[in-house]
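Please produce the structure of this protein holding zinc ion.
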Amino acid sequence: MMLRAHKIELRINNKQATYFAKASGAARKAYNWALDEWQKQYQAGGHPTEAALRRQLNSIKRTEFPWMLEVTKNAPQMAIMQLGDAFKNFFAKRAKYPTFRKKWRDDRFTLTNDQFAVNESRIRIPHLGWVRMRESLRYTGKIVSATISRCAHKWFVSITVEMKKTATSIANENQVAVGVDLGLHHFATLSTGETITGPKPQKALMSRLRRLSRRLSRKLKGSNNRNKAKLKLARLHYRIGNIRCDAQHKITTRLVNDFNTIGIEDLHVKGMMRNRKLSRSIADMGFHEFRRQLEYKAPSAGVKLVVANRWYASSKTCSHCGEKIKSLSLSEREWTCGICFTRHDRDINAAKNLEHLAVSSTVSACGASSDGAITSVIASHGALKQESNVIAIYG
Ligand SMILES: [Zn+2]
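Below is the modeled complex.
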């Protein structure tokens, strides 16, 4: 079984927007109230639990927060359950200590599957009826929950679906490995020699982005105009992000379907020095998103993902004989190995090295696979030389 979430923009009217804001408010109030109670009870020597806090809130809701009754009871309930999860993650050292939710930044509420229904490109929400979605749900399977959230004055629903493992992921038994070199020249180069152009938001959008961020920096802090400019910028970032995100989903899904071992780099820093700050930060965001997608898609598809650390010299090592050259300037797209005289395309050679590294580290790491978790994190004291170049293996 694997969980997948699909985030879809909602097409709403004013009445619906008001309801969403109210329900998010109820969720935020409940979360913050419960966090405050948790801290008080803990300091008084108690052992707070989310279940007890939910009961406690229910008993005082009618008198203390009557407005909460105007929205789905899921909003406050699920928020307190999420606080329970946040504490669980904190105690397991997976996350920081929970913080209070803030208006605008944390406007969201969650519905359990008995509280809503999805039909084509509509979702039915308690007290509200059918709300239109900009697209229909991408996944089929048992619907688990839905979270409605606000981002830059738009509302979205993220629907979580439980899916059976796909046929492709099971058919993936034949041992095929691939290395992926990310860059600005091509978004990705595979060790098979294939290049993926990747997501490129139109030039017009990019120049608008530059203009808007320049304008924002000139506005007075705290002024109304600054807030307006901020919002405009957030919307544009969102639009560009969407174009990229969609294209990346296609690429990452294809990779986990076609290969069972994938080698990538931790962070792409090479080739970026020449670029202006903005295009660089955007590229960074793209690479992070690419890795994030692979990190969750690979384990559930039974694919091993090996992440090489940023000091691994994937470009400067000959993928044929292993010779490491001293320097390789950014402009050198091709080079010849002085030892074995193999002619290399810079990016393909890097991708091939990442493939070798991925294969050799999955063989030597032989960690037991636990679903979705990092199998082994190898620090620089790794037993094998190869391993010191790897920071994490997923799947
Ligand atoms: Zn060589």
